Amino acid sequence: MSDVVIGADIGGTMIKWVVTTASQEPLGQGRVQTAPADPQRSLRRLRKDIAAALPQAPDVFAAVGVACAGIVSARTGWLGRSPNLPGWEDTALGQLVSDAFAGVPAVVANDVNAALYGEYRYGAGQGCRNLIMIALGTGVGGGVLVEGRLVTGAADGAGEIGHMILDPEGPTCTCGNRGCLEAYAGSVALLQKARQLAVDDAKASTDFVGLVRERGERLSTSDLSQLARNGDDTARELFAGAGLRLGQAVANCVNLLDPDRVIIGGGVAAAGDLILEPCRRYVPTAVLSEGSRQVPIVPAAKGSFAAALGVAALAQHRGELA
Amino acid sequence: MSDVVIGADIGGTMIKWVVTTASQEPLGQGRVQTAPADPQRSLRRLRKDIAAALPQAPDVFAAVGVACAGIVSARTGWLGRSPNLPGWEDTALGQLVSDAFAGVPAVVANDVNAALYGEYRYGAGQGCRNLIMIALGTGVGGGVLVEGRLVTGAADGAGEIGHMILDPEGPTCTCGNRGCLEAYAGSVALLQKARQLAVDDAKASTDFVGLVRERGERLSTSDLSQLARNGDDTARELFAGAGLRLGQAVANCVNLLDPDRVIIGGGVAAAGDLILEPCRRYVPTAVLSEGSRQVPIVPAAKGSFAAALGVAALAQHRGELA
After folding, report:
1. Which of residues 233-292 of A touch B (CB under 8 A)?
2. DSSP string for B159-204
3. Is the complex ipTM more than 0.90?
């Protein structure tokens, strides 16, 4: 049998895939559209896309790893709640994947866990054994690696750092609670806050108000970080506020687990030091153990293919999900 | 060589010790006074006390485990900051212990980590592989067990759950920050809050105000829990408020790690359901993953000898500190 594996990150619109050898050499990567309502059709597309892009790929792979957002059980291969993939929810995803690829072993993982594993093997976490990752996207996800193994939890519920409550009187979160990290540092929350500042805050800069009005529904965190990089105070304060709350969450994680490194990924993290520097300044003030205060807080390095790479590595190293 | 080990929990006033066989049969236990300024003298006392109490104990033990409060490195045996043991701080504690017991292997651990390990092996955590412990004492300590191994951290700073910041505008903590769990649920914080209620709160019950005045400096959390058990509303609300904040901290830990069980120990936990029930009611409202919401939140079972038992078990199972 070949030693070549597939790693595929199933998003709501696109599947990103990589094919790697046992020595973790990448043979190729690509993207193909997801059929959000039809997992079988999506997996057939994935198989055809790989065959077309990599004629040298084997007919039968050693294993296939699949990552997606949602509650994923590495033990059973079951995908539970997964709002972006309505047709995939509550399915035996591992079995579907195995069936779609000639019965080979399938590994399934949550997408942020997979991205953390990708960063651990190839990116910002290389050389570490204990990592925390926080992914600042539309929502905020997370992952925990202890002694080189992903912590998935007793009921596959680990890594929900986005719903750490930082102030029970804080802003309302999509989950219904108040003051979750996601309600401060997810892109939905940041955009909402930006729109609110543009309307309510008399001190908001003219440029800031102008940008928010002009972009309307198309306003993005990269529009805002662009403005902040140009020196706009209102935009800078917006990211600094999110960075401080990110710092509180990071410090809480460090006080609990004292990892080797903390990795910040996701689209909002593209704001870079606008959000990371306030976080880095805050963390040492809130970490009790002196030796742990200078924990490196670093941006993710493997970009949007981190989860595909990570789940390919998990498919190679089956059994490394704690 | 014998297979008998010692486990000793070095407190600021007393050393609690147990002697166990490899099969973890307890041969005996006892207490002897600590010399807080003189570790060598304390260890000689410990040795004599065991010899007197257990004439059948071997001359040379298989290993000696020692637990104490503070920053302890299981890897190097070094004891760093340890406010209750001024003469023991910044010493090669593992070496001192080994020297005091005829050169046998020594294992050192933080006291809450050791108590967690004791609960895992013999108490409220039996049968689980993933546990979180929160010890509500004068301060608030914690410990994390992942896949049967204690998480000590990159710089021995893990487990500081007491300094999880639950509200950056909250009450001032002994560490200088605001809104730490310890500032809501440690006994110092609870007693301070009780005294404040007795003076400032016009709605405080007559019994409550009377108790606080009568007990003065000797007021204890067990005085207050007694009053609460007798149905006093002010005392009940005091514990319920601490229980809610404990719930916020537990939920944050569960969202991050999704353990099999959460164990609550320490003197304040003797208030039992007065503090645990509000915590248990809050946690399911704040845990994102549906399958993890009903995580059992249980009182510690091994009482004040948990740390001695735990560090004896660690001495038997050397290498189980992650």
Report:
1. 248, 251-260, 285-292
2. T-GGG-BS-TTSPBPTTS-BSBTHHHHSHHHHHHHHHHHHHH-TTS
3. yes
